[in-house]
Design goal:
The chain is mainly α. About 65% of the residues lie in helices and about 5% in strands. The chain has a two-stranded parallel sheet with strand order 1-2. Helix 1 crosses helix 6. About 25% of the residues are buried.
Length: about 120
């Protein structure tokens, strides 16, 4: 399932604008998760965190920055706490910085739109 989510987000970064929602991700990547069930939504959060940690450790952008949390201004606390674990700063400070998320998304799209990166790491 991680590979499917990762591939979907890479294609999204290359070909789409804006962000995707949890629901769109589940539907478009055909994950079969029901987000009304808390443990299934938690599983999706875990998958996104695992993918993002691995990408970051390998010098690539954090793919989960492209997944918007419904009802929030872009990302929930879980995302910013992940960024804190990765050493990007204190999560509350990151959450308050409007440029932080904007820059992450820009870097992610820029990286994956380079054909050589896509061919080598996609």
């Amino acid at each position: 399932m991680n590979a499917r989510v990762r591939s979907h987000l890479i294609r999204f970064a290359r070909n789409q604008v804006g962000t995707t929602s949890y629901l769109n991700l589940v539907q478009e990547a055909e994950l079969g998760l029901n987000l009304e069930i808390s443990h299934e939504k938690s599983r999706l959060n875990e998958i996104l965190s695992e993918i993002s940690e691995k990408e970051y450790q390998n010098g690539r952008p954090i793919l989960s920055c492209l997944v918007k949390v419904a009802g929030s201004k872009g990302q929930g606390d879980t995302f910013f706490k992940l960024c804190e674990r990765l050493g990007l700063g204190e999560w509350r400070t990151l959450k308050q910085d409007p440029e932080f998320l904007k820059n992450l998304r820009h870097e992610c799209r820029e990286f994956w739109q380079i054909d050589a990166n896509y061919e080598k790491f996609g």
